[in-house]
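hey so i finally got around to running the thing on that chain from the lab meeting. sorry it took forever, my laptop kept dying and i had to restart like 3 times. anyway pasting the input first so we r on the same page abt which one it is
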Amino acid sequence: MFDISALKEMKLPELQEIAKATKKIKFAGVKKEELIYKILDFQAANPQPGDQPVSQENRDADRNDSKQKRARIGGSNRPGDTRSDAEPARIIIEPRQNSLFSEEPGVSAEGEQTSQAPEHKERRQNDRANFKKGRFDKSNPAQPARENDDNREVPEVKSEAAQAVEEPTAVRNSSEQISNNDQPVDAQQNRQGQKPKHQHQNQGRGERTEPNQGQQQGQEFRDADFEFDGIIESEGVLEMMPDGYGFLRSSDYNYLASPDDIYLSTSQIRLFGLKTGDTVKGVVRPPKEGEKFFPLVRVLKINGHDPQVVRDRISFEHLTPIFPTEKFKLAERHSTISTRIIDLFSPIGKGQRGMIVAQPKTGKTMLLKDIANAIAANHPEVYLIVLLIDERPEEVTDMQRSVRGEVIASTFDREPQEHVKIANIVLEKAKRLVECGHDVVILLDSITRLARAYNTVQPASGKVLSGGVDANALQKPKRFFGAARNVENGGSLSIISTALTETGSKMDEVIFEEFKGTGNMELQLDRKIANKRIFPAIDLTSSSTRRDDLLLPKDTLQRMWIMRKYLSDMN
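ok and heres what got predicted. didnt touch it at all, straight out
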């Protein structure tokens, strides 16, 4: 029995074959919908013979017929077969579903075979239609009548397998070609791809298909899932956003926004107590669909220490500053005449706040480079940062190639906002390292140009000093320069900066006067000495360090006093 949904899934030629098998339905020139309702009306008026009750005598007769059919399948001599053994068995293929619409209740063994072959093909085409939709209907409409008949269940399965083997290929191909011509191209391609598998199953297992074949076919072209979590380790300096999350900025891009940024969530920042400037090393994973940045999966190190240790640190503002007590050794390896003079006349200690006061073209950049190389060679435990603000690009390249340290630069072709941003994040990074007990040295060139950038960015307050300097503009560069200190019980931040004088700008003079009394070490360069091509052009009598008695040995300090007395008399 067919229901309306099964009939609507069939094509018009299939419906016409079913109507032809009934021998009572007129199908010539009839549309598909009308033909479906005619078939349904015919089924209602003529129920299947399998639905009628079967007596015990009929069951015995059917059992005898099934035994004869098994003898026929095996190829043995069956009664009533007058054909010779050499002649191939010929089977007349009746129109499909003949057993559904047959009016005679009793059929012969040969009639059963001819009627089961179209039924077998009909179920196979229904399974193909269902396979195209990715599902299988386990309840075939034509099966309940056969399943209820216990006596005919096993013989029918075997006879269907025999029919599939003995059916001529020409008849099978012709019937399938008629139905294939009316189907869409993609459905035909899908069925051609599945046809060998169905035929193999029909011949071996008697028209049984597995329900997960559609899922296996769908998974054939699925991309492989690769897991990259826990493979890549990255490091950066944290910059906090106003919303609570942050990004790890890369030093390759001077701590500005870049494609290498790593996202940190608010929960991670709160869990480890992170601040702006923390150097975080951790494991990242690739961004998923809808994400822009590489997120941090696991934190390994914070400022070179374990995350559990850093969480209980004391903030930089609450550390106790003291005078420098340990001197940088500048007169040993990689020493020059410049570093040896500085080491005697104005020694630099850990936590020094030094200023190199220089006129234009006196060799301050070369002097800064010599100091950086001497510190890097003799003190590998010190974290060295060279910060170049508003400098020439060629000087930046030369510094990067000749100094063994981290060089952060913002050239004069950049905006003043970038100068300020880079200086702030470098200062915050240095503070976080000092909180964890590290010794940090910042070589700044120059603090005058940094103060100019702060003055440009600062909103107008209405109070302007001479030279066009805003009254509040110098507070932030003073805070930068004043952060240098030696911390009690470990850690120090040393800042050696250059200040320009006699440039012809009144603003530079005001800036220098503001910073003149804030440092505890001063190194004066003289333009007259530089004009004589004597380098380093250091004014020895004007250069000195506060509390140098804490840095120099007692005998060396006494000899230096004698030297200074003779030098002062020579002037």
